[in-house]
Amino acid sequence: MKDSNLKIYLASGDDGQRKVLQANLELLTHQVELSTPSPAVMIRRCQENPPDIAVVGTRFQEDDCFRLLNELSELNVCPAVAVLEHQDVDRSHRLMADQVMGVLVQPVNDRDLRTAIYLARRRFDQSKLMKQRISELKETLGHNDDEPIDDESEEASP
């Protein structure tokens, strides 16, 4: 898994936060192909052409960062890293259940982002593999539905 030169989409309602995050991402040699204050733009672009990773900040004018993160989770097209503020930490526990792959708390630096991106991508890939394996197992079990599973009847026969 190559962790440099990734295509990154970045969304934050705070211009200062967005600029700092973008500078740190570019310091890691990633390509920030989208930097937007709009959750709707982020969702649309992720649907059209998913990035290698989505980075989501805070302070959106008309939306909540958690709603954006939940929508990205439902799309399930790319790993996501949330960059939250201290007051949001208590609400962040539910993000892990919603498949948000990484959570950082402000202030962050390039090392924090590097680690979060690596772990988010790895967790996303593992999640996809598990879902694929579950589908395979369900399919296998579905083909054997015609055969009854009754361990007791085999033991009772002479």
UniProtKB/TrEMBL annotation:
Which superkingdom?
Bacteria
User: Response regulatory domain: from which residue to which, for each copy?
Assistant: 7-121
Extent of Basic and acidic residues compositional bias: 136-146
User: Which GO terms are recorded in the biological process aspect for this UniProt protein?
Assistant: phosphorelay signal transduction system
For this protein, the record's InterPro entries field holds: CheY-like_superfamily, Sig_transdc_resp-reg_receiver
Which residues fall in a coiled-coil region? none
Q: Which PANTHER family match?
A: PTHR43367, TWO-COMPONENT RESPONSE REGULATOR-LIKE APRR6-RELATED
Protein's name in the database: Nitrogen regulation protein
Give the source lineage, highest ranks first. Answer: Bacteria, Pseudomonadati, Planctomycetota, Planctomycetia, Pirellulales
